Amino acid sequence: MDVTQAELEALAAEVGTALVARGWMLAAAESCTGGWAAQALTAVAGSSAWFERGFVTYSNQAKIEMLGVRVETLDTFGAVSEETAAQMAQGALAHSRAQAAFAITGIAGPSGGSLEKPVGTVCFAWRLADAEVATARHWFAGDRQQVRAQSVQLALRNLLALMP
Fold this sequence. Notes:
Distance between the termini: 29 Å
Strand order of the largest sheet: 2-1-3-4-5
């Protein structure tokens, strides 16, 4: 599925409107998307009113140092897991002034997949202040760019759906 940059930016603008309505700020923790979600969010004029910060934690060490992901979690479940995504989202919230956070970690390809976690496997987490973390695992078809774009789209859509 092809997702355009314009579609991502329109979705980001919706996220911004929802955050402003609640007086909230947002933090993002990204791995396989490499900052694409933050780019889509900051492409929206005035996003400094609601986008607080982004963490691009591509390596496991960055996830540990910047977000507090536990070594045991990475050893047991791997970087591409709902458990790691949950700790990434929790870390983004804890290491920012935001009231909402999301995390994306996956295998965009073309290599790096396995039978258990094929290319296109992406794990997500969303955390709102005073709420439990929500997680999901999805498999996306397409090339590296398509997997990454679909991941950003899903992260933003689900964030909108979770906001009270």
